[in-house]
Design brief:
Layout lengths: L2 E7 L3 E8 L4 E7 L5 E7 L2 H8 L2 E6 L2 E14 L7 E8 L14 E5 L1 H14 L11 E3 L9 E4 L5 H11 L3 E6 L4 E6 L9 E3 L5 E9 L6 E8 L2 E8 L8 E5 L10 H18 L3 E8 L16 E5 L5 E14 L2 E13 L1
Parallel strand pairs: 9-12, 13-19, 15-17
Antiparallel strand pairs: 1-2, 1-5, 3-4, 3-20, 4-7, 5-6, 6-7, 8-10, 11-12, 14-18, 15-16, 18-21, 19-20, 20-21
Helix pairs in contact: 2-3
Amino acid sequence: MNIYVWKYTNEKGFQTVALIDYAISVIWIRRFQECGEFELYLPATEELFSLFLYGLTFLTKEDELKTAMKVESIQLTTDPEEGDRLIISGRSAECILSQRLVLTEPTYDNFAPDNVVISLVYGNAIWNGTPERVIPFLATGHLIGMEEMVQQSFYLENLLETIVNVCQSYHMGFSLEFSGTMFTMQPYLGTDRTGKVIFSGELDNLGKTEYLYDTTNYFNGAVETAQKEDRIFAGTVRTASGIDLYERHIQSENLDTDALTDDALIAELEKRATNNIYQSKVKQEFSGEIVNTEMYQFGKDYYLGDKVSIINGYGIEGTAVVTEITETEDASGYKLIPTFSDWKVI
Protein backbone atom coordinates (compact mmCIF):
# COMPACT_ATOMS: atom_id res chain seq x y z
CA MET A 1 0.00 0.00 0.00
CA ASN A 2 1.74 3.18 -1.16
CA ILE A 3 1.12 6.31 0.91
CA TYR A 4 1.62 9.96 -0.08
CA VAL A 5 2.66 12.45 2.61
CA TRP A 6 1.18 15.97 2.30
CA LYS A 7 2.23 19.11 4.16
CA TYR A 8 0.10 22.24 4.51
CA THR A 9 1.36 25.77 5.02
CA ASN A 10 -0.52 29.05 4.76
CA GLU A 11 1.99 30.27 2.19
CA LYS A 12 2.06 27.30 -0.19
CA GLY A 13 -1.11 25.34 0.63
CA PHE A 14 -0.91 21.56 0.21
CA GLN A 15 2.22 19.94 -1.22
CA THR A 16 3.29 16.30 -1.49
CA VAL A 17 6.64 15.80 0.20
CA ALA A 18 7.17 12.02 0.20
CA LEU A 19 5.92 8.67 -1.07
CA ILE A 20 6.11 5.80 1.44
CA ASP A 21 6.22 2.35 -0.17
CA TYR A 22 8.24 0.58 2.51
CA ALA A 23 5.88 0.41 5.49
CA ILE A 24 6.18 -2.72 7.62
CA SER A 25 2.42 -2.62 8.12
CA VAL A 26 -0.50 -0.34 7.31
CA ILE A 27 -3.96 -0.14 8.89
CA TRP A 28 -6.37 2.16 7.01
CA ILE A 29 -9.96 2.48 8.29
CA ARG A 30 -12.77 4.50 6.69
CA ARG A 31 -16.17 5.02 8.31
CA PHE A 32 -19.62 6.08 7.06
CA GLN A 33 -20.70 8.29 9.98
CA GLU A 34 -17.57 8.85 12.08
CA CYS A 35 -13.88 9.60 11.75
CA GLY A 36 -11.75 6.89 10.26
CA GLU A 37 -8.26 6.13 11.56
CA PHE A 38 -4.90 4.81 10.43
CA GLU A 39 -1.59 3.43 11.64
CA LEU A 40 1.72 3.18 9.81
CA TYR A 41 4.49 1.01 11.22
CA LEU A 42 7.78 2.11 9.67
CA PRO A 43 11.53 1.60 9.94
CA ALA A 44 12.79 4.82 11.57
CA THR A 45 15.28 7.31 10.22
CA GLU A 46 16.12 10.82 11.43
CA GLU A 47 14.80 12.27 8.17
CA LEU A 48 11.51 10.38 8.41
CA PHE A 49 11.09 11.28 12.09
CA SER A 50 11.51 14.98 11.31
CA LEU A 51 9.16 14.73 8.34
CA PHE A 52 6.26 13.64 10.53
CA LEU A 53 7.18 15.57 13.67
CA TYR A 54 6.86 19.08 12.29
CA GLY A 55 4.01 20.83 10.49
CA LEU A 56 0.43 19.98 9.57
CA THR A 57 0.59 16.58 7.88
CA PHE A 58 -1.98 14.53 5.95
CA LEU A 59 -1.71 11.14 4.23
CA THR A 60 -3.50 9.72 1.19
CA LYS A 61 -3.31 6.36 -0.55
CA GLU A 62 -1.60 6.47 -3.92
CA ASP A 63 -4.69 5.00 -5.62
CA GLU A 64 -7.23 7.27 -3.87
CA LEU A 65 -6.84 10.99 -3.28
CA LYS A 66 -10.31 11.72 -1.87
CA THR A 67 -9.80 10.11 1.57
CA ALA A 68 -7.09 11.82 3.61
CA MET A 69 -5.82 11.01 7.11
CA LYS A 70 -4.42 13.59 9.56
CA VAL A 71 -1.27 12.69 11.48
CA GLU A 72 -1.94 13.10 15.20
CA SER A 73 0.54 10.80 16.96
CA ILE A 74 4.21 9.91 16.41
CA GLN A 75 5.83 7.19 18.48
CA LEU A 76 9.56 6.46 18.16
CA THR A 77 11.13 3.27 19.56
CA THR A 78 14.89 2.70 19.40
CA ASP A 79 16.28 -0.81 19.68
CA PRO A 80 19.93 -1.67 18.83
CA GLU A 81 19.03 -5.31 18.19
CA GLU A 82 15.68 -5.17 16.38
CA GLY A 83 16.13 -1.79 14.73
CA ASP A 84 14.43 1.57 15.27
CA ARG A 85 10.72 1.88 14.52
CA LEU A 86 8.15 4.64 14.01
CA ILE A 87 4.43 4.28 14.63
CA ILE A 88 2.51 7.06 12.90
CA SER A 89 -1.21 7.24 13.67
CA GLY A 90 -4.20 9.54 13.58
CA ARG A 91 -7.72 9.98 12.29
CA SER A 92 -9.32 10.83 8.97
CA ALA A 93 -9.54 14.50 7.98
CA GLU A 94 -13.02 14.80 9.48
CA CYS A 95 -11.26 15.10 12.86
CA ILE A 96 -10.43 18.76 12.16
CA LEU A 97 -14.10 19.52 12.83
CA SER A 98 -13.52 18.50 16.46
CA GLN A 99 -11.45 21.69 16.85
CA ARG A 100 -14.63 23.82 16.83
CA LEU A 101 -17.60 24.35 19.11
CA VAL A 102 -21.09 25.14 17.83
CA LEU A 103 -21.45 28.88 18.45
CA THR A 104 -24.06 29.66 15.81
CA GLU A 105 -27.84 29.08 15.89
CA PRO A 106 -28.80 27.80 19.36
CA THR A 107 -31.64 25.72 17.91
CA TYR A 108 -32.33 24.27 14.46
CA ASP A 109 -36.08 24.00 13.78
CA ASN A 110 -37.40 22.42 10.58
CA PHE A 111 -34.02 22.11 8.87
CA ALA A 112 -33.33 19.01 6.76
CA PRO A 113 -30.44 16.93 8.23
CA ASP A 114 -28.13 17.58 5.27
CA ASN A 115 -28.83 21.31 5.56
CA VAL A 116 -28.10 21.20 9.30
CA VAL A 117 -24.63 19.65 8.95
CA ILE A 118 -23.63 21.93 6.07
CA SER A 119 -24.88 24.98 7.97
CA LEU A 120 -23.04 23.89 11.11
CA VAL A 121 -19.73 23.53 9.27
CA TYR A 122 -20.13 26.75 7.32
CA GLY A 123 -21.13 28.77 10.36
CA ASN A 124 -18.49 27.42 12.73
CA ALA A 125 -15.45 26.61 10.60
CA ILE A 126 -15.73 28.59 7.36
CA TRP A 127 -17.40 31.91 8.03
CA ASN A 128 -19.27 33.40 10.96
CA GLY A 129 -17.81 36.86 11.30
CA THR A 130 -14.90 35.63 13.44
CA PRO A 131 -11.79 35.35 11.20
CA GLU A 132 -9.72 33.39 13.72
CA ARG A 133 -12.25 30.53 13.61
CA VAL A 134 -11.93 30.08 9.82
CA ILE A 135 -10.25 26.90 8.51
CA PRO A 136 -8.79 28.26 5.25
CA PHE A 137 -8.76 25.03 3.24
CA LEU A 138 -12.33 23.96 4.07
CA ALA A 139 -15.47 24.35 1.92
CA THR A 140 -19.00 22.93 1.98
CA GLY A 141 -20.55 20.74 -0.71
CA HIS A 142 -24.10 20.43 -2.00
CA LEU A 143 -27.39 19.44 -0.38
CA ILE A 144 -28.66 15.92 -1.10
CA GLY A 145 -32.38 16.62 -0.83
CA MET A 146 -33.39 14.96 2.43
CA GLU A 147 -36.99 15.49 3.53
CA GLU A 148 -36.91 14.70 7.27
CA MET A 149 -36.67 17.69 9.59
CA VAL A 150 -34.41 18.26 12.58
CA GLN A 151 -35.63 20.04 15.68
CA GLN A 152 -32.79 20.24 18.16
CA SER A 153 -30.40 22.59 19.95
CA PHE A 154 -26.63 22.18 19.50
CA TYR A 155 -25.26 25.35 21.09
CA LEU A 156 -21.81 24.92 22.74
CA GLU A 157 -21.56 21.27 21.67
CA ASN A 158 -18.49 19.96 19.87
CA LEU A 159 -18.93 20.41 16.12
CA LEU A 160 -17.72 16.94 15.11
CA GLU A 161 -19.76 15.16 17.79
CA THR A 162 -22.85 17.11 16.73
CA ILE A 163 -22.45 16.15 13.07
CA VAL A 164 -21.87 12.50 13.98
CA ASN A 165 -25.02 12.47 16.11
CA VAL A 166 -27.15 14.04 13.37
CA CYS A 167 -25.82 11.61 10.76
CA GLN A 168 -26.43 8.57 12.96
CA SER A 169 -29.94 9.74 13.79
CA TYR A 170 -30.93 10.24 10.15
CA HIS A 171 -28.96 7.42 8.46
CA MET A 172 -26.70 9.82 6.60
CA GLY A 173 -22.96 9.76 6.07
CA PHE A 174 -20.46 12.60 5.72
CA SER A 175 -16.90 13.07 4.59
CA LEU A 176 -14.26 15.71 4.06
CA GLU A 177 -13.28 15.02 0.45
CA PHE A 178 -9.72 16.00 -0.45
CA SER A 179 -8.94 17.43 -3.89
CA GLY A 180 -5.25 18.11 -3.42
CA THR A 181 -5.90 21.78 -2.67
CA MET A 182 -9.05 21.84 -0.48
CA PHE A 183 -11.33 19.73 1.70
CA THR A 184 -15.05 19.78 0.94
CA MET A 185 -17.53 18.75 3.62
CA GLN A 186 -20.10 16.58 1.85
CA PRO A 187 -23.09 14.72 3.36
CA TYR A 188 -24.20 11.65 1.41
CA LEU A 189 -26.55 8.68 1.40
CA GLY A 190 -25.73 5.09 0.52
CA THR A 191 -27.25 3.08 -2.34
CA ASP A 192 -29.48 0.02 -1.92
CA ARG A 193 -27.55 -2.84 -3.54
CA THR A 194 -29.37 -5.73 -1.83
CA GLY A 195 -29.79 -8.67 -4.17
CA LYS A 196 -27.00 -7.30 -6.35
CA VAL A 197 -24.11 -7.39 -3.88
CA ILE A 198 -24.26 -10.55 -1.75
CA PHE A 199 -21.69 -11.76 0.77
CA SER A 200 -22.03 -15.40 1.88
CA GLY A 201 -20.09 -18.57 2.54
CA GLU A 202 -21.76 -20.27 -0.43
CA LEU A 203 -20.35 -17.64 -2.76
CA ASP A 204 -16.91 -18.08 -1.18
CA ASN A 205 -16.59 -14.34 -0.63
CA LEU A 206 -17.22 -14.22 3.13
CA GLY A 207 -14.81 -15.69 5.67
CA LYS A 208 -14.69 -15.03 9.40
CA THR A 209 -17.78 -13.21 10.68
CA GLU A 210 -18.91 -11.65 13.95
CA TYR A 211 -22.47 -10.68 14.86
CA LEU A 212 -23.49 -8.52 17.84
CA TYR A 213 -26.99 -7.77 19.14
CA ASP A 214 -26.99 -5.45 22.18
CA THR A 215 -29.91 -3.68 23.91
CA THR A 216 -27.86 -2.38 26.86
CA ASN A 217 -28.25 1.32 26.01
CA TYR A 218 -31.57 1.17 24.18
CA PHE A 219 -34.64 3.05 25.43
CA ASN A 220 -38.06 3.88 23.97
CA GLY A 221 -39.41 6.01 26.79
CA ALA A 222 -37.82 9.22 28.02
CA VAL A 223 -38.45 11.72 30.79
CA GLU A 224 -36.56 14.89 29.88
CA THR A 225 -36.24 17.37 32.76
CA ALA A 226 -35.06 20.93 33.33
CA GLN A 227 -35.12 23.29 36.28
CA LYS A 228 -36.81 26.69 36.13
CA GLU A 229 -36.28 28.76 39.25
CA ASP A 230 -37.10 26.32 42.06
CA ARG A 231 -39.31 23.96 40.02
CA ILE A 232 -38.50 20.85 37.98
CA PHE A 233 -40.35 20.55 34.67
CA ALA A 234 -40.60 17.28 32.74
CA GLY A 235 -41.49 16.25 29.22
CA THR A 236 -42.47 12.59 29.01
CA VAL A 237 -42.67 10.52 25.83
CA ARG A 238 -43.28 6.76 25.54
CA THR A 239 -43.39 4.77 22.30
CA ALA A 240 -44.03 1.34 23.86
CA SER A 241 -45.77 -0.17 26.87
CA GLY A 242 -45.60 -3.09 29.29
CA ILE A 243 -42.54 -5.28 29.19
CA ASP A 244 -41.52 -3.66 25.90
CA LEU A 245 -41.07 -0.24 27.54
CA TYR A 246 -37.49 0.86 28.36
CA GLU A 247 -37.42 4.19 30.18
CA ARG A 248 -34.57 6.67 30.58
CA HIS A 249 -34.20 9.95 32.47
CA ILE A 250 -32.38 12.72 30.59
CA GLN A 251 -31.29 16.00 32.14
CA SER A 252 -31.79 18.60 29.42
CA GLU A 253 -28.79 20.80 28.61
CA ASN A 254 -28.25 24.16 26.90
CA LEU A 255 -31.84 25.27 27.50
CA ASP A 256 -32.75 28.83 28.50
CA THR A 257 -35.69 27.98 30.74
CA ASP A 258 -36.29 31.57 31.80
CA ALA A 259 -37.07 32.57 28.21
CA LEU A 260 -39.93 30.03 27.94
CA THR A 261 -43.39 29.94 29.45
CA ASP A 262 -44.23 26.84 31.49
CA ASP A 263 -46.25 25.32 28.64
CA ALA A 264 -43.56 26.14 26.07
CA LEU A 265 -40.89 24.60 28.31
CA ILE A 266 -42.81 21.34 28.64
CA ALA A 267 -43.37 21.26 24.86
CA GLU A 268 -39.65 21.80 24.28
CA LEU A 269 -38.75 19.00 26.72
CA GLU A 270 -41.20 16.63 24.99
CA LYS A 271 -39.65 17.51 21.63
CA ARG A 272 -36.18 16.78 22.96
CA ALA A 273 -37.34 13.52 24.55
CA THR A 274 -38.80 12.45 21.21
CA ASN A 275 -35.55 13.25 19.43
CA ASN A 276 -33.47 11.33 21.99
CA ILE A 277 -35.74 8.28 21.64
CA TYR A 278 -35.33 8.49 17.88
CA GLN A 279 -31.55 8.43 18.30
CA SER A 280 -31.65 5.40 20.62
CA LYS A 281 -31.13 2.21 18.66
CA VAL A 282 -30.69 -1.46 19.41
CA LYS A 283 -27.03 -2.05 18.60
CA GLN A 284 -26.63 -4.59 15.83
CA GLU A 285 -23.27 -5.05 14.17
CA PHE A 286 -22.06 -7.62 11.71
CA SER A 287 -18.47 -7.73 10.52
CA GLY A 288 -17.08 -10.10 7.97
CA GLU A 289 -13.77 -10.65 6.28
CA ILE A 290 -14.03 -10.53 2.51
CA VAL A 291 -12.30 -13.57 1.04
CA ASN A 292 -12.75 -13.10 -2.69
CA THR A 293 -12.14 -9.44 -3.52
CA GLU A 294 -12.47 -10.15 -7.25
CA MET A 295 -16.24 -10.73 -7.05
CA TYR A 296 -17.12 -7.33 -5.56
CA GLN A 297 -14.60 -4.54 -5.36
CA PHE A 298 -14.97 -1.80 -2.80
CA GLY A 299 -15.07 1.56 -4.54
CA LYS A 300 -16.49 0.03 -7.70
CA ASP A 301 -19.29 -2.41 -6.83
CA TYR A 302 -20.16 -1.04 -3.38
CA TYR A 303 -19.27 1.93 -1.18
CA LEU A 304 -19.54 3.14 2.40
CA GLY A 305 -23.19 3.61 3.32
CA ASP A 306 -24.49 1.10 0.78
CA LYS A 307 -27.01 -1.56 1.77
CA VAL A 308 -25.98 -5.11 0.81
CA SER A 309 -27.17 -8.69 1.37
CA ILE A 310 -25.42 -10.89 3.96
CA ILE A 311 -25.73 -14.65 4.66
CA ASN A 312 -23.48 -16.17 7.35
CA GLY A 313 -24.82 -19.74 7.60
CA TYR A 314 -26.32 -19.54 11.12
CA GLY A 315 -29.78 -18.51 10.08
CA ILE A 316 -28.59 -14.91 10.04
CA GLU A 317 -29.61 -13.66 6.66
CA GLY A 318 -30.63 -10.15 5.83
CA THR A 319 -29.55 -6.72 4.74
CA ALA A 320 -26.93 -4.49 6.32
CA VAL A 321 -25.27 -1.14 5.74
CA VAL A 322 -21.53 -0.94 5.10
CA THR A 323 -20.47 1.41 7.91
CA GLU A 324 -16.74 0.76 8.02
CA ILE A 325 -13.96 -0.48 5.74
CA THR A 326 -10.68 -1.67 7.25
CA GLU A 327 -7.72 -2.28 4.96
CA THR A 328 -4.59 -3.92 6.32
CA GLU A 329 -1.31 -4.79 4.66
CA ASP A 330 1.69 -6.45 6.27
CA ALA A 331 4.02 -9.40 5.74
CA SER A 332 1.05 -11.77 5.49
CA GLY A 333 -0.55 -9.81 2.67
CA TYR A 334 -3.50 -7.49 2.05
CA LYS A 335 -6.97 -7.78 3.61
CA LEU A 336 -10.16 -5.75 3.26
CA ILE A 337 -12.66 -6.16 6.11
CA PRO A 338 -16.04 -4.42 6.03
CA THR A 339 -18.23 -3.80 9.07
CA PHE A 340 -21.98 -4.03 8.56
CA SER A 341 -24.46 -2.19 10.81
CA ASP A 342 -28.18 -1.35 10.73
CA TRP A 343 -28.70 -5.10 10.43
CA LYS A 344 -32.16 -6.29 9.42
CA VAL A 345 -32.77 -10.03 9.58
CA ILE A 346 -34.96 -11.51 6.84
